[in-house]
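Morning, I've got a small favour to ask if you have a moment. I owe you a coffee for this, so here goes:
>
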Amino acid sequence: MTADAQVRDAAEPVPDGFGHREVEQFLYREARYADENDYDAWEALWTDDALYWVPAGGADIDPVTQVSVIYDNRSRISTRLKQVRTGKRYAQAPPSNLRRLISNIEMLCGRRNPDGGIDLEVGANFLVYESRARGNELWGGRTTYRLRRVDGELRLVRKKVVLVDNDKAIPTLGFLI
């Protein structure tokens, strides 16, 4: 990470202008869109400089030098969704029935963004119930989100999903878009 990136990524106080209830509702809506396979609505939540990261083998690995389950920029998020929309993605044919529970939502800090503003970093625990023909799975972990206000609306800049069992073999992660 460059010195400029480290300064930009330094934690700052929680910025003004983000209401706790508004943030909760945004996170719940994002989860619902994913659960209900509303890929257009889910994709519309992301900023152009988005990053979606699911580390493997630890929470604080270096995604550039170590394997991640997912490490997608905005373009790759779009490509992943195009693949899912074809209906031919084996991991999700037929799609799982899903429900996410989100709890312990905390407004953690602010993080400078490339535009000179400050994004809000939010942490939350989650539990996902996945039901499909092969059986049921429970997935748990912690998600860290970065949110930015764009044209008056909250948008998702970064989503880091740390699974409790990310150090073990994972049979499939179809619930991750």
Q: What stands out?
A: Strands lie at 11-12, 46-55, 68-73, 97-112, 118-132, 135-150, 153-163.
